[in-house]
């Protein structure tokens, strides 16, 4: 997507009186400096009642302040904010720790130093190594994630999947399988039928197939085949997923492309999509629709706004209730308008009064574009998933 200029102009309506809500209001419209000031002000409360709304908004305000500072590359302020939330050891501590790890990664710090730093920072607070493990998993530092999880004699159920996945992602497939088999002890394992137990079972199957280099011919339920393929891609076992969802099965192949894209294998997904003869615009199944949305989003990312708008329009007409499609189409028109206004502004014949009017229109379009982007209509990827495309070798991520 083209960079959206940060336009600091007067708001077009009165912002909320609540400081936290005001910060979000400014942020949605692209008034980032005002948003930053509002979030910082919201962190200061005079209330002594920790059950009050003011107190409940302190940590979320610090977290928003840290995220926005990181976006504006004010790294010292960002780190300060995340540290405060972590020190409070409350509901938002894990998210703050995750974003702190992402910040250190963005600054170019190696994985081992990030791990050491976070373990040191949390040593004196109500934290456990598994929380740092989750943060290292979040940024794709799987080697150090597994080491943090392994510091516990018994892996907590909520960490079991990430620990097994970390072992797989670092090439320790046999070790992952041994862990899953040991975790079969009813004392240690989540109750049968829980999402954790089912997902661990899938990871175990994939490990066995990887070690034996074999995949069963068919499964009883197609839905389970899809889930196994999705899990395989998340574990960097792409060849297994390709075997489960072959190109000969059109609907399965659409699902494969979608899974690859959503798990961070964007180039591979787009390459497979480009090889399709036509897009399934008339398809009524969910993966046909998702595939077409990915195609439109990819055009938008590459600044082909007219083509993207045309495709989004077709998708909207076939499914008027799909909000992401409507916002995507709107974003295309706003981007095209900005390009048109920018060209007029650069024209030599533009008078001073005309230039001022054009700039005013551009400010309004930018504010509208920020509001559209704040709906999160576009696909987002975690730092770990972003590393897939950035890594020279996709065989093992560390």
Explain the overall architecture.
This protein has helices spanning 19-29, 32-42, 53-56, 58-71, 75-88, 93-106, 111-121, 129-138, 142-150, 157-169, 173-182, 195-212, 222-234, 238-244, 250-262, 266-274, 286-301, 305-318, 323-346, 352-373, 383-390. The protein is 67% helix and 0% strand. It is flat. Residues 1-11 and 392-398 have low confidence and may be disordered. The longest helix is centred in the C-terminal third of the chain and has 24 residues, at 323-346. It starts with 18 loop residues before the first helix and ends in an 8-residue tail after the last helix. Among the domains are: 13-46 and 54-108, Tetratricopeptide repeat domain (Serine Threonine Protein Phosphatase 5, Tetratricopeptide repeat); 291-397. The protein is an all-alpha fold. It has 21 helices and no strands.
Strand and helix map with partners:
Blueprint: H1 19-29, H2 32-42, H3 53-56, H4 58-71, H5 75-88, H6 93-106, H7 111-121, H8 129-138, H9 142-150, H10 157-169, H11 173-182, H12 195-212, H13 222-234, H14 238-244, H15 250-262, H16 266-274, H17 286-301, H18 305-318, H19 323-346, H20 352-373, H21 383-390
């Amino acid at each position: 997507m083209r960079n959206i200029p940060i336009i600091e102009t007067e708001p077009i309506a009165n912002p909320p009186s609540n400081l936290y809500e005001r910060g979000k209001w400014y942020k949605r419209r692209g008034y980032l400096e005002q948003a930053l000031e509002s979030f910082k002000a919201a962190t200061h409360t005079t209330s002594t009642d920790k059950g009050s709304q003011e107190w409940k908004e302190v940590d979320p305000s610090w977290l928003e302040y840290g995220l926005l500072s990181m976006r504006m590359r004010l790294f010292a302020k960002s780190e300060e904010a995340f540290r405060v939330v972590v020190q409070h050891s409350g509901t938002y501590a894990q998210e703050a720790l995750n974003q702190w790890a992402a910040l250190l990664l963005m600054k170019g710090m190696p994985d081992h130093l990030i791990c050491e730093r976070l373990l040191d920072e949390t040593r004196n607070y109500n934290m456990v190594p598994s929380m740092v493990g989750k943060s290292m998993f979040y940024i794709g530092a799987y080697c150090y994630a597994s080491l943090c999880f392994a510091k516990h004699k018994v892996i907590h159920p909520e960490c079991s999947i990430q620990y097994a996945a970390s072992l797989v992602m670092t090439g320790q497939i046999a070790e992952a399988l041994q862990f899953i088999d040991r975790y079969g002890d009813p004392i240690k394992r989540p109750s049968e039928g829980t999402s954790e137990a089912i997902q661990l079972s899938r990871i175990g199957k994939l490990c066995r197939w990887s070690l034996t280099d074999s995949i069963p011919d068919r499964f009883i339920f197609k839905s389970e085949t899809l889930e196994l393929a999705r899990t395989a891609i998340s574990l960097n076992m792409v060849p297994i997923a390709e075997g489960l969802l072959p190109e000969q099965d059109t609907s399965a192949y659409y699902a494969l492309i979608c899974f690859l894209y959503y798990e961070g294998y964007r180039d591979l997904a787009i390459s497979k999509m480009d090889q399709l003869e036509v897009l399934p615009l008339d398809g009524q199944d969910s993966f046909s629709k998702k595939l077409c949305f990915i195609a439109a989003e990819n055009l938008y990312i590459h600044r082909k706004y007219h083509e993207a708008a045309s495709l989004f329009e077709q998708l909207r007409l076939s499914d008027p209730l799909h909000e992401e499609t409507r916002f995507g189409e709107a974003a295309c028109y706003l981007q095209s308008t900005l390009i048109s206004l920018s060209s007029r502004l650069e024209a030599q014949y533009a008078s001073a009064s005309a230039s001022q009017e054009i700039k005013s229109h551009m400010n309004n379009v930018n504010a509208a574009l920020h509001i559209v982007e704040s709906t999160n209509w576009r696909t987002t990827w975690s730092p770990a998933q972003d590393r897939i495309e950035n890594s020279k070798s996709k065989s093992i991520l560390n």
